[in-house]
Amino acid sequence: MQNASATTPTNGTGRLPRPRQLSDVKGWFHPVDQVLFDWIMSRQLDRGERGDLLELGAYLGKSAIFMGAYLRADETFTVCDLFDSPAPDEANSAEMGRSYATLTRRAFEANYRSFHEGLPRIVQEPSSGITAHVAADSCRFVHIDASHLYEHVHADIAAAREVLGQDGIVVLDDFRAEHCPGVAAATWGAVANTGLKPLCITATKFYGTWGGYDAIHADLAAFLKGRDDMWHGAEEVAGLPMIRISGKKAKPPEQPPSRHAGERAPERQGDQISEPAPASAGTGSRARGLLSSLLTRSGRS
Description:
- The protein is α/β, with parallel strands linked by helices.
- It has helices at about 5, 30-45, 60-70, 90-100, 105-115, 150-165, 180-195, 215-225, 290-300, and strands spanning about 50-55, 75-80, 120-125, 140-145, 165-175, 195-200, 205-210, 230-235, 240-245, 265-270, 270-275.
- About 30% of the residues lie in helices and about 20% in strands.
């Protein structure tokens, strides 16, 4: 992979981007999945479920920024990604070269700090070693969006099973994308062979659990029934009524606030971009602003 100075995305001035809202962060995190992430993690908070958060594969931080808003003060959010480190094998190296040529840790950190005061715990190495950093049974939510190669995804799922606590949720990205057959094979293989229960699917993500199924399935079905922006239906898979969701018109939930929200958008001057002056301290938002609003609405303290 190229060095950071050659690959870090900048705005033409040599400075890193300053996202004013989550949609300014490059990446693939559709509104329907934002709705489901919000519903699942908010439900966990409402029910007093304890546990850490884990993301395998971060790209530039879009979903990580979102997840960070649901973290309690006494919990840990771990993000694992190679960033600028060498890939562990030739196939993975080729995959990264094709898809993630602009990926750097510096860009991820800049984006994340635009929405949160502190960074998550970052593990910059192959996801295959994540169990050396995250304790067994310690997590309540794991998002897997790293390699698309079967062997790596298979290992990531095994790691998720080890680190998830009782009733924890695992989410797998690109499980049915045409260019990612390895993810599909590993996902459905886990359903067939490891007891992974398919809770629901969207166009891009699979949601499942090795824990209790009936209660969360019933709650999710009731939640979806009350929305007019997301179609859903039941598909029996492995003897369970998995929910299939079409969310092309899904309305995203409240977004994490950026401390750059009050800034003007950069202005183009010829081939350069002139970056506006930073906003005053009064326009910034505390990193946990979204979580605070969630706690206030639900009566939690």
